[in-house]
Fold these 4 entries.
Entry 1:
Amino acid sequence: MKRRHRLGVLFLICTLASFARGQAKPTNTDASSPSSSVRESLLIGRGDLLHITIFREPDLEQKVRVKDSGEVDLELVGTIKVAGLSPPDAARAIAKLYREQHYLNHPQVSVFLEEYATQNITVLGQVNKPGALAVTTARGLLDVLAMAGGLTEIADRHVTIERADKSEKTVVFLPNDAAASLQAETSVYPGDTVLVPKAGIVYVLGDVARPGGYVMQDDARLTVLQAVAMASGANRTAKEDATRLIRKVSGSYQESTVPLRDIERGTKPDMQLEADDVLYVPFSMTKNVVLGASSILSSTSSAAIYAAR
């Protein structure tokens, strides 16, 4: 009786397992199936060497070079344009062509980019050697910037990467900290464009220890106290209560008074500065020279620019 019970349980388990297998959706490995949600960033370019294989069709295995027209010549079916496609998308297009011309019913095509032709990565903006860099494969962003001579003193750390097909723009933040920059590393592919914008600059002029322009790097946030500190502080002869802020608003310059001494004492809140702001700390009454906003702004053109360290 116990044996019959055990056999019944075993039969029930096998029946349920068989039913579960029947309900499961089969995995479609046909190259003609829709692409996954993960998009390939490295696309096929002119001059690339492709290795094309078709499952169970060894006679149709071929290595073809992409022509200047962006097309490749395939066995039996003729030419097809693949430049600008990812390898999986090219495989689906080739499979579709073999089906439409009735050579194969369910072709499972694989396309492997065996050799990249030399393509360019364009680096523009605040690098020491902007221009086109000849590459044969994907490179790291830090490697690309090094090939372009590195960042300039006034480079913004938010670097934009535009993919070759113009479908995606990625902004990568490279902080001054070396370890953090390595963690932010990303790949740049042939045909991509890298743009390094100019960082915002705040000018601290007048009776300070080190007048000049200061780059708003990293998070691009700078307050009045931080800017004065970067200028090594106001001199003893400075008339801090008459500090002036000149800011460009809607194409014209507006001037306001900054209570620098009260901010330093903590009786007034610190103020956030914006790119191209001019903070002017006047001299004491005995040394004071009354300067208009236009005279102060003209002096920014000759001011030394200091990058944050």
Note: The two ends are 85 Å apart (CA to CA).
Entry 2:
Amino acid sequence: MIAHTSRLAALFEKARAEKRAALIPYIMASDPDDETTALVIDALTDAGADLIELGIPYSDPLADGPTIAAAGQRALEGGATIERALQIVRAAHERNAAPILFFTYVNPVSQYGAAAFAKAARTAGALGAIVPDIPLEEVDAFAPAFHAAELALPLLVAPTTPPERAARISERSDGFVYLVSRLGVTGARREPDIHWIADAVARLRARSGKPIAVGFGISTPAHVRSLAGIADGVIVGSALIDAMAGKRGAAAASAAKAYLISLRAAL
């Protein structure tokens, strides 16, 4: 197995051996400050996170719902940068925190330089990055740089993606396939359609042997419990950020840990 996928594969294999789905929380870097982010990363690690998605704040986040967009805005107002996000990951890696996968967009990576970003992310200790607005036809503009740095580039399959295109996306996706559970942006206000998700996972599994993680709209222990026997991973973002709303430092970390423990127990 090639290096940029083997480290992610190991996370899913461990969860599978424990007869559960991998738990993947999402937080925004530097929201509301770097110290809080570091404490929250450690709290999520202690609560049993298998992998942490760390958002890089961006002013035009197309896939982000109101909660995550607001988190990014708070971070930007506090002076967040890619360099600071890299430093957060570097320090977390040195503390043996849960593995981290960046979540960013095409424009910030392009502005930084794909090769330079990939090299810096690898040096910091990240496993790769999710870049949701990369069209399948443009993956080759980023994938070679990521693979050269031994980083994974997981791709997204949306509810509107035709089956044949979904199969091609799955083939090009590294580490796992990110299945978007519903139309629209991220958020925790609508119930996920568990039956549709189960059918979508089955279709993808028939075409790809890669792990499938489900995100967008997953927010409660009941959601996680329902998905635990369907998907290989469960991604939770907006509801986690809501749980920390208005808090900083140890208070934010405590709230994040309590919330994630409730989800971990449901697995």
Note: Residues 184-188 have pLDDT under 50 and may be disordered.
Entry 3:
Amino acid sequence: MPRFAESEWIANTDDVRVRVNTLEPNGGTPWHFHSVVTDTVFCLEEGLEVALRGPDERVTLHPGERQDIAPGRVHRVVNTTGRPLRYLLIQATGKYDLNEVE
């Protein structure tokens, strides 16, 4: 399960989840995928990276930029800085699940 310094819920329904997450310094979520929902990661602060598999790529986001992650695609969100880092996460539309992978 992700290790967040803080998580602020904006909306949490059966089909849509919206929150501001704060990642620990140099921290990140585990590698995972979702079966149904699309993750939309909005960068709020400098130092955010989205790592993806299939194909492998790393996307550096700057404030105001976003990355959509399709259902089934393995990914993780990483804080590349030595300070806490906030980003906005929208997960829609459908039943939420989190499937961790190695």
Note: The mean pLDDT is 94.
Entry 4:
Amino acid sequence: MGRVVLVTGVSRYLGGRFARIVSADPTVERVIGVDVIPPPHDIGGAEFVRADIRNPVIAKVIGRAEVDTVVHMNVIATPLGAGGRVSMKEINVIGTMQLLAACQRAACVKRLVVKSTSSVYGSSPRDPAMFTEDTGAKQLPRSGWGKDSVEVEGYVRGFSRRRPDVSVVMLRLANTIGPGIRTALSEYFSLPVLPTVLGFDPRVQVVHEEDTLEALRLATMGGVTGIVNVAGDGVILLSQAARMAGRPTAPVPPPLVGIVARVMRRSGLADFSPEQIRFLSYGRVLDTTRMRSVLGLEPRYTTREAFLEFVYSRGLHGPFSPEVVGRVEGALLAITSAARAV
């Protein structure tokens, strides 16, 4: 018999795409996609089950289907997409607790994959050049998705101690970006003017959505366990990213950043949370040695390539848009070639 995989958050973009990918695997007999609303997109051969992971009914779904692999992707990054911060906290933390309780009681469950985030490392002026999986946060995130993810990981570690027979892997993903996914970071770079923190130009590292999905597939179908950082190679500075997106920046003095952030959140322009402000001040870069040596992932896109793919897909234009930069680089190469030929 093939494997039976349960995917949470299947009505979201990445969850739906992942369910479709796994359902096409010949070694998988059945894929069950769980969410509170029907998916608006194609989930391939996966079966949709309307269920709330905050409700103990999720245990019945796992038990009746004899699920052996659970992929938890229903950790929400922005309160705007969850109906508010309170609802977001309930889905992320209470939902994870209920899901883990159901997995603990189900003897059939043998593998748990959790989509986590590099936000658990926080962002501070005392951060190392690169975070390894064993590096602790210099300053733990105190709000939002980062704080929720720290709690989620704590509950997952507790589950792993109670069920040592279950293989557990947590993927700490850099900010995922690409043509289809919408995140706080992609919405930020889509603003007509980018508010930045005066005096700061942080290093930004991202991972393309295709590489995120491949990392989840390898974690689900392979034998890796433990924590794995996932990110594209290289970094870009925030100022470079703004130029690639053709977006002017508006440096905001640090004492006024909080006021600007509140105005943006209330107006619905972007989720400019305190967590995001710290990221846009200090950045965050991951060591991806385990991603290659343990998970076996060689990213198709570097950070720069992933960001440019996002820029092209959104049709972002401006005085420093990729089209203009490409033409300038081509002209410079032609001039250099001509000079060498003389």
Note: The mean pLDDT is 90.
